[in-house]
Amino acid sequence: MKIKKLAGILLASGLLLSGCSSSSIVQEDGKDVVASIKDKNILADDLYSSLLTTPTGKSAVFNFALEKIIETYYPVDDDMKSYADDAIENIESQYQSQYGDESETQLESALAQSGFENMDDYREYLIQSLQYSTLIKDYAKNNFDTVFEDYYKQATPRYLTLIKVSVADMDNPTTEEKEKLKEVKALLKTDKDFGEIASSYSDDDSASAKGELGIVDTTTGLSSQYGEDVEEKAFKLKSGEESGEIKGNDGYYFLKCTSTDKEKMKKELKNVDLNSPLLAYDSYMIYLAFNTYDLNYGDEDIKKQITDYVKEALKTRDENIGGNN
Amino acid sequence: MKKLNLSKSKIIIVVVLVIAIVIAVVFGLTQNKSSYASKISDGSQTFISDKKVSVTKQEFYEYLLDNYGASQILDEVLNTIADKEITDQKEIDKLLQERIKTYAQYSDGSIEEYAKSLGYSSAKEYEDTSLLPQVKQELLRKKYINENFDSLMSEFQVCSMKKIVVSKESSALSIIKKSTSEEEFDKQMKTYDDKGEDLGIITKNTTLDDNLLDKLGDLSKINKDGVYKDAIKLSDDSYAVVFMYNTDHNKNKDEYQETLASDGDVQTKVESYYLKKYEFTVNEKKLKDAIKEISSDYID
Q: Does the pTM of the predicted model rise above 0.90?
């Protein structure tokens, strides 16, 4: 009796363990019922079909396939983890120095505003972004000539050098600020090299590199950092031209377009890494990259849904940017 | 060599223990792979594959459930409920045409273009799968609000008010004394210019000063238009004088119903009511939890 009881407990515990998170699935005519209301069952098959036919479902088919490609061909590695950890450490230390004791609360609030539950959630997002970027990077690398041609055509890249004269209050510059601005303008009229002036007088971080910003394109985001007028002027300059004084964010700016030489740029960008501007200028590149995978589809419907989705995206790309890839 | 001497009873325990562990391990592994119990009919069929990737349709089904399952189930059951509850075809058609006209304006008058911009293949698909269900949901909410108008007005503390905020209590009391009618209060609002404001219809979910919100229970019960007898001290130590208007709720029913219908909490209340009425049950634990996370009132 005691043995039977013990055996029963053991079996029950096994079943309990095995079923601790499962659900009891009801069936209707041999098909699984996920949910129900009076007189109506929602079958797994019907739910699948209706999910698939919504616009969200249509994009989900593509996203799922892409996710599987990324998971398989670009699995998470130690470098990605380490990059994410470094980025988080950097953010935390920035918040610590900016907010002190309040840093944790401020960071939590910033994460919540960006849609992340916590730092682990954000870390996962960073790692996924790296996986995604690596896929794009490989596409750009393997199709470098085509991608570069398109980049050069679409993103108007150029080498820019910049001088910034900081002004704390743009409506009331101090005498010192006015004097510095006057001196920079005077120097720009002399034979002194633009880069040398930047090196000695610019208040921008680029001063240590003689004001060189490197390759700048229309997706770099000059306007958010320096102001809209700075960005507008930057892409009007021809090679060798200087901008003159531009009123921008937190100061006055002077720009020089040092080169728009295509071959020089191509040579510099040849080694495509994760920081390459080639990865950021075309948000539709993911569809081009996806098309390089020779996938087999389980049925014609799925095949049509994915290929139509990609085709539609690439059509929009062509309409928007006149892409030639 | 020493012979292993196990009694019969010990052998039974060991065998049962092994079976229990095997069940736990096998089912445990299965669950690690799949957290859903429901299966689609051709789930083992390939979704996509290549030389390295191999994914089944069941895996895609579970991906869809993870991301959209809870909201899709709610949509489906609420649409079914609305189909049963809302049967006045003329009313449905009228509201549908109004919505088509409104949304078409977003794409130069073309509902076809607007539908395509949202990812639908045609206007008809958009109307059938999205607009019509939305219209029916709207009518379902209106139906519930109409049937429970007084209790909802009271629960959500709905009322219409104008206010003047002044820094001194004596100024507030002076305004109250002078505000013998709505016209007089309006004159005071002009006198105090930027300190006066017609708040329109407000509810307990409107963003208001905390102290004013605390008073809303009393204010919303007032059934005669007029200035409120007390100056209300606000959280920044200023004083608000409020004038209640449209206190005859039935005379202004349409406006109040619109306000209630657009309140998220009222929407949840209506949906919860009908889900319970129609005995909504969910067999997938994970989906049930996800639905409870949307609102714990949706399901027991």
A: no
